[in-house]
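Weekly structure sync - notes
Attendees: PM, LS, DV (DV joined late)
Agenda: review two folding runs queued last week.

Item 1: First target. Sequence and structure tokens pasted below for the record.
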Amino acid sequence: MQAYVYILASKPHGTLYIGSCADPALRIEQHRQGHGSQFVKKYSVYTLVYLEGCETTHDAITLERRMKRWRRSWKIDRIEKDNPNWDDLYPHLNQYLPL
């Protein structure tokens, strides 16, 4: 089963949240409705700025944990490599997910 690691941001170079899930469309919608993470709700971290697919849920969780230990500058570099303008990827999520 494919799973994903995602990064949400409050604004460009703002507060970041890293998570993993099997269904990013559902999970991001949950975050935006204020469910699932008190951190996301407290700091208004709702903009999907990064999404990476992994082969398995285990791989996604492993990558999530690894990324959470990264220096902030590394996380920002990772985001800006694919999304230099920090655009919200959520409205175009179907372009990033397999059919």
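Item 2: Second target, run right after the first with the same settings.
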Amino acid sequence: MTVSIKVRKELVELADKMIKLGLAKSRSHTFNIMIERGLKEVEFWENIYRDVEELKKQNFVLRHGNLNKLLEEDRAQ
């Protein structure tokens, strides 16, 4: 399917650089790579959000900013 979009000049330059470096075959290929990586990022955060909501339903208490403390306690054991 063909879709026309406007993108920033920097993205076109990045696409051209990716082609020059052999990372992609064409501009179309480079933009597909960028979009696919973006989708993976969205899927990652959707999974995190889903898991957090599930933990909340199970009455887990989630505290922001305590990851370092938890890791230190785990290493001490």
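Discussion on item 2: The chain is about 70% helix and 0% strand.
Action: LS to circulate a short write-up before next sync.
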